[in-house]
Design brief:
By secondary structure, the protein is mostly beta strands. It has one helix and nine strands; from the N terminus they run βββββαββββ.
């Protein structure tokens, strides 16, 4: 698996090294700069705090033409162990609210909210036609932990309260000790 990283955005992904597994009916999820896969599909992904946005090119119903019937995307904070994608998929959480597939070649996307920003998240997508015939698994999209690098603003009005002038007492207030 070849990895591509975009650390400014907290996203990286791998590309399957078996191109036949990526062909028919697969919605390709690549993160930025996917080189040879650019003609099949591309993806842009971004992460901010607890949200990951994944973008991919819609596959066709029958290969690269038409419109597929549905998507299923799953995610976990555990990487895929060796080549056991099926076990990972079965234990992963389904992403709710996926769009219906667009016509082949059009960009589709989804934003997943509520992710723990300090964890790495892994995403895989599959596509089905009307039968449903299911595509193979897409490549793995990875959202690296979000690291807030912006410091809070500096305080510029800090003073010692004991040296701040106290307002004078009200004119009708008693002053001192009565004799």
């Amino acid at each position: 698996m070849q990895a591509i990283a975009g650390t400014d955005r907290g996203i990286s992904c791998g590309i399957e090294r078996h191109p036949l597994r990526m062909c028919v009916g697969v919605a390709v999820l690549c993160a930025l700069l996917c080189g040879a896969w650019a003609s099949i599909g591309h993806a842009q992904a971004s992460s901010r705090d607890s949200t990951a946005t994944l973008v991919w090119t819609a596959p066709g119903d029958d290969g690269a033409s038409g419109r597929a019937a549905r998507y299923e995307m799953r995610f976990r904070n555990v990487p895929i162990a060796s080549a056991d994608t099926v076990s990972w998929w079965n234990a992963a959480t389904a992403v709710p609210g996926l769009p219906s597939p667009s016509v082949a070649g059009v960009t589709d996307s989804v934003s997943i909210r509520g992710l723990a920003p300090s964890q790495t998240w892994y995403f895989v997508l599959r596509t089905a036609d009307e039968v449903p015939n299911w595509s193979n698994f897409s490549n793995l999209a990875i959202r690296e932990p979000y690291v807030d690098r912006t410091a809070p603003g500096a305080i510029s009005d800090l003073v010692n309260a004991s040296t701040v002038a106290q307002p004078p007492p009200a004119p009708d207030a008693p002053q001192g000790t009565p004799r």
